[in-house]
């Protein structure tokens, strides 16, 4: 699925991913390929991106931390909104 993460500073990430785990206001949840359409508000926490070949926008790559346990990259956020539709996830964060 295609993931796009955007902040007021610019595009933080855009690319194909295996899964995305986000801190929803009612708890953490994960989206996999062909997940049902969803719109959600995000709470403070980590967005976990599972991707085989991580390529962040060079100027924002330092915002992501590689997990020691697996092939996930973590991005800490204060809040945000998410939309998944037609196998594309767009996350707006601050």
Automatic annotation (TrEMBL):
Gene3D superfamilies named among the record's database cross-references: F0F1 ATP synthase delta/epsilon subunit, N-terminal (2.60.15.10)
Sequence intervals crossing the membrane: none
Keyword match Ion transport: yes
UniProt keyword Thylakoid, yes or no: no
Bilayer disposition of the protein: Peripheral membrane protein
Subcellular localization: Endomembrane system
Pfam families reported for this sequence: ATP-synt_DE_N
Major site of localization recorded for this protein: membrane
Keywords annotated in UniProt: ATP synthesis, CF(1), Ion transport, Membrane, Transport
GO terms, molecular function: proton-transporting ATP synthase activity, rotational mechanism
Stretches assigned to the ATP synthase F1 complex delta/epsilon subunit N-terminal domain: 3-94
Name by which UniProt lists this protein: ATP synthase subunit delta
Species this protein is from: Flavobacterium beibuense F44-8
């Amino acid at each position: 699925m295609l993931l796009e993460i955007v902040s007021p500073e610019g595009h933080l990430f855009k690319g194909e991913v295996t899964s995305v785990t986000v801190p929803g206001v009612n708890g953490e949840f994960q989206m996999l390929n062909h997940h049902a359409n969803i719109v959600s508000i995000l709470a403070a926490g980590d967005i976990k991106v599972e991707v085989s070949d991580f390529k962040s926008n060079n100027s924002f790559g330092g915002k992501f931390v590689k997990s020691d346990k697996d092939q996930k990259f973590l991005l800490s956020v204060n809040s945000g909104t998410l939309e998944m539709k037609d196998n594309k996830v767009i996350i707006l964060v601050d």
